[in-house]
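Example record

One chain of 397 residues, shown exactly as stored in the release files.
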Amino acid sequence: MKLVIPTNWDDALPDKVKRPEVSAVYGKLDRDFIGGGRPSSMFGALSRRAAARHVKKFADAGKPFYYLLNAGCLGNREWTRAGNREINRLLDWLTDIKVAGVTVAVPYLAEYIRRNYPHFKLAASVLANVNSVEKARYWEGLGASVITLNHTELNRDFRLLGKIRKAVKCGLQLLVNDNCLQGCPLFSYHHNVIAHASQSAESRGSYTFDYCRLSCRRMMLADPANFIKATWIRPEDLKHYEEVGIDHFKLVDRTMTTEALVRAVDAYAARSYKGNLFDLFTNTSRLNWAKVSGFLHKLRYYVHPLKLNVFKLYGKRGVAKDIEVYLDNQALEGFIEFFKTNDCRSMSCAECGYCAEAARKAVKIDPAHCAELLGVHEKFLGEIISGDILRYAPPKR
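Predicted structure tokens for this chain:
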């Protein structure tokens, strides 16, 4: 088994994940020219000197480091001389600190790096949206040594996973503890928004309303079957994916606390977890955000009185509450077998009902808590969609 794990840049982490199952580590600064798959507002500032020390700690432990350059959009800045210089400066720094490889989502960057910085190993990000045989062949042709397949479409499509495995020789990996929606309709838009929210050249301190995350949480609260339809893979079920040729299993999330990351690494390395499977996923109380969001951090990313109604925004902080749900891992024993013989993507959930039935057995959530949190999300999303969150007074009609 090969686990690829994130870092939250805590220097205590390398000593806590020395397991032989951990084959590589990934991460990135809170913001840089290219950007990535998480908004800058979720991280504290990190100096390049501190990052270099951290990368060396993992390298000394035999864990190669992959730096994320996985924004799906660079705002066309890559086509300018100034933009090209910034890309080179970033890649030169990554060369200096001896990262082993880079993870990209934009084909141009893959080709640029392969030609101009061939010493880097190249990984295709999940944000490259590789969801077919031909896309996998394309990225292998670009030089990718490993491809992270789109988990929202493929984590339960064993037939297609097997066909992709037969078509390419490069490594294949899947995200295992993300809880995005299967076939997520927000996938492309979400990561395009976040790309700009993590780029150093963006204005407004790289802040954005996470409309997509709010919408996802609303759908799960409105229908608890969506907790089952999410993209997670149980630690006990890794063997089924190894049988179809998946080489690496990638954990998230680099926004999580060290304690939460270690718990997830230990569970997947042991191929077993007793209790609440949701413990292995992101939730507000498991985020590092509380540790890094001091006054200056909030001022930089959230206080924009000339851009939006900061009083209304402050009043919506209740959306950050934990979703208090118990996902009974033992009740999900054998759950994966259905997907090995059924084509889930071509079926209607309303007609199938398999996940809804599993939810009745495995998902435990207090109805009052669910209704309260759903109401908070509905209200916040309503103000975002109407535009009221931006204004201090009703618009003139």
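Notes: The CA atoms of residues 260 and 286 lie 6 Å apart.
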